[in-house]
Write a structure and sequence with these properties.
The structure is a homodimer. By secondary structure, the first copy, chain A, is an alpha+beta fold. Chain A has helices spanning 2-23, 35-52, 121-136, 157-165, 223-232, 255-262, 268-275, 288-293, 334-348, 373-386, 401-409, 434-454; strands at residues 55-60, 67-72, 80-86, 106-108, 111-113, 143-149, 174-177, 189-194, 196-205, 211-212, 297-306, 315-316, 319-328, 354-363, 366-367, 391-394, 413-415, 431-433. The first copy, chain A, has 2 domains: 2-194 and 366-458, Aminopeptidase; 196-250 and 296-363, Alpha-Beta Plaits (2-Layer Sandwich), CATH 3.30.70.360. Chain A contains 12 helices and 18 strands. A 6-stranded mixed sheet of chain A has the order 1-2-6-3-7-17, with helices on both faces. The two termini of chain A are 29 Å apart. β11 (297-306) of chain A pairs antiparallel with β11 (297-306) of chain B. Chains A, B: Keywords: Hydrolase, Metal-binding, Protease. Chains A, B: GO terms for molecular function: metal ion binding; peptidase activity.
Chain lengths: 459, 459
């Protein structure tokens, strides 16, 4: 609608400035040294929601980082959309690989460079600005509720508790999230699902102290060597995961479904060039799109042990550690998979060492039916602003809380993300396209318009 | 001799105080941040040698850390002993595992706790005090030369250059080193050899940046996973090292030699209890004494990659690293073994990743013939002060420079160490027994006495 276009045109510079100031707050949820910044960020989000026209805005304390809630109820008879997002960000390290400060946002070319620019400050803030546009132009077509949390990057465990305790307050017809990516602005896509996650940490202990590798080397098991052997054993020669029962509940897609997925535009040469690799890797028998969409994975996210400083130290370490996470697909259950991992790892550990396995967090996979009225509304909205219908794709990432929304609130979730895979999420030099930011703000009101028109889906 | 005993009895407290002040200097050679402390330590050693009666003492600069040289020539016709030691120490980390500051020496029970207390400040300083005793009591039986270096813990590469350039200055009949251990004060032993060392570092690179493990996980090789697979492949099911040609030059000992080795007192239950392990590990077909003495090994000294901080980060790392060292036995050549490792590692690396292999340093193994006159002199000296002849054993550690002494100076080396395997060399809470310190000072003059009496071995 012209009125939306005009309002954004008049205010687009301010919208950007507001986002940049939000990106300057280092709201790293995983690292307790940033706890105060996370709180500051929550207060800032509250202020922005109020300015945009939201009511009953509150910073809700939790056992961890707070949740910001706000709403704009114009007519109880109209459908209600619950907008979810997160204001926390991933740790910024390795710092030395950033071209500019992770929390000193800069505009270079067509992009905003900063930690959280795409994941998820730049994306949830589009919804705050869309709210402003609709309220200021008096065109809000339905009721809106906002729930912006501060623990998405560490598993949303307290959000789960909050949701269970506030079912009435959160009553809605659908959940809308912008925290994923599309193929490109030229080939818009819409996620039909997300992978689940099970994040583990393992500790392998050999001798009770670091030893001289000459005096003891050869006679005592080296926990770093044993850890490598255990990790190596978790993929077979076809890169299948060897944990017994791991694939039991994995849903196999039909030929047609797999064909549809593989019809999405994908340029392998370009993909390899962007990543700087000569060869791709993965589970035998599946395409890259399938490997990152419909197949589960097991990745080492971090490994450490022994002397890692400058020069050399001839030590036989006492301990070695690894952070290992698995991406899950329907119908794997993250708690069950975490158990399978733990039992298997403890079982295969040789008697020379002691192992400790802990679960960090996780979430189950999720699928959005493409025939859902809200999915149609999202498709129409994208068609209205991008000029072509989005390609349905399976997202490889995880938003652990989505499965819980369905379980606890009985709500389906629409994953209308405007980022790109190349945004360096969780990596140095995270970026978000200016065009993506503005296009998102332009598209969101259409979603609400079409969803209101297509009618209330639950009662 | 009584005069030696009396002099030590009168001065033993001062001897200890002097050692403690030397231990307070953090002369860590591997870490450039301690370069100034290493230099300070060299100057201190010079001062102590002069006070003990050495002449022509100088701090000799090198491309790295300096070498302290000094001598006491009483009569060119008498035999000359070249005493070698090192004033540099291993890095102290992990600091949190020390019960007291690594460079704040404390006496607890019968031990001195400090980094370098046994390796090697506490041991080379016994020779400085033995010199003082013999000069002050006018009983020095032969000529002495001292060469105390500052780079033993980082491979002694500059000492090698120094030795080649100063063959005349270093002319002697035998090299004497106290930088190893004995079985116990009740069961004194004398090393008949040392293992060599080849210290490597590997870097495995996957994608050109850290990636989101959900967006890319399953489609791109994870360098941490690949590194684990490569390391795991380097031992077979019998814990034999799989590098082609690695064992080709390994000298097999005769049945008799192996029996002699295994006759040394060894309490496996006690050994396991001390290390806190339920089971020992090692190469099939060899005893623990053989695994640490006459067999080569491959150990991971350090491994790191990805996110190793608090909490979780769902990253697929760009790089993973490991420090890997091999202990070598006669007649393996460390340069040849380093090449074999490099070629093998590069060969087995899959095309999904790029690998970089660098050599830190190394040294070849060494054996002392038990029929050598200086070995007999050392045995007699130990018998004189311990009351029983030492058991000949193969040391598992490495002093890379020893092989070079033989090659460049044509000198055999006597490894008369007074430490214990339980001294936590290279580990937190390194210690050295007070009794070991004093017993060493008491024993050393006898070595010189008997060596002088048994006569000059070369001319």
């Amino acid at each position: 609608m012209q009125v939306w276009k005009d309002y954004q045109a008049k205010n687009k510079d301010r919208f950007l400035e507001e986002l940049l100031s939000l990106l300057r707050i280092p709201s790293v949820s995983a690292d307790s040294r940033f706890a105060a910044d996370v709180k500051t960020c929550a207060e800032e989000v509250k202020k922005r929601l109020e300015e945009a026209g939201a009511e009953n805005v509150e910073v809700c304390p939790t056992a961890g980082h707070p949740i910001v809630y706000g709403e704009k109820i114009i007519n109880p008879a109209l459908p209600t959309v619950l907008v979810y997002g997160h204001y926390d960000v991933q740790p910024a390290d390795p710092l030395e690989l950033w071209d500019s400060g992770p929390f000193e946002p800069v505009i270079k070319g067509d992009n905003i460079y900063a930690r959280g620019s795409a994941d998820d400050k730049g994306q949830f803030y589009m919804h705050v600005k869309a709210l402003e546009i609709m309220t200021k132009t008096d065109t809000l077509p339905c009721n809106l509720k906002f729930m912006i949390e501060g623990e998405e990057e560490v598993g949303s465990s307290n959000l789960g508790i909050f949701v269970k305790a506030n079912k009435e307050k959160l009553k809605a017809d659908v959940v809308l999230i912008s925290d994923t990516s599309m193929i490109s602005l030229q080939d818009p896509s819409l996620d039909t699902g997300l992978r689940g996650l099970s994040y583990m940490e393992v500790e392998v202990t050999g001798p009770n102290r670091d030893l001289h590798s000459g005096v003891y080397g050869g006679a005592v098991a080296n926990p770093a060597t044993i850890l490598c052997q255990l990790i190596a054993s978790m993929h077979d020669e076809n890169n299948h995961i060897t944990i017994p029962g791991f694939y039991d509940k994995v849903q196999d897609l039909s030929k047609e479904e797999r064909k549809a997925l593989n019809d999405a535009p994908f340029d392998e040469a370009e993909y390899k060039k962007d990543l700087g690799v000569d060869e791709l890797w993965g589970e035998k028998g599946y395409s890259t799109i399938e490997r990152t969409g419909i197949r589960p994975t097991l990745e080492v996210n971090g490994i450490w042990g022994g002397y890692t400083g400058e020069g050399s130290k001839t030590v036989l370490p006492s301990k070695a550690f690894a952070k290992i996470s698995m991406r899950l697909v329907p119908n794997q259950d993250w708690i069950e998979i975490s158990e399978l991992f733990k039992n298997h790892f403890e079982k295969i550990a040789p008697k020379y060492v002691k192992v400790k396995v802990t679960t960090h967090h996780g979430g189950s996979p999720y699928v959005t039916p493409t025939d859902h009225v809200a999915f149609k509304a999202a498709s129409e909205a994208i068609k209205a602003t991008f000029g072509k219908s989005p390609i349905p794709v399976r997202g490889g990432g995880s938003i652990p809380i989505v499965a819980l929304f369905e379980k606890e609130l009985g709500l389906k979730t629409i994953l209308m993300g405007f980022g790109l895979d190349s945004d360096n999420l969780h990596s140095p030099n995270e970026k978000y396209g200016l065009a993506n930011f503005y296009k998102g703000i332009e598209t969101i009101p259409y979603f609400h318009k079409y969803f209101a028109e297509l009618g209330r889906t639950s009662a």
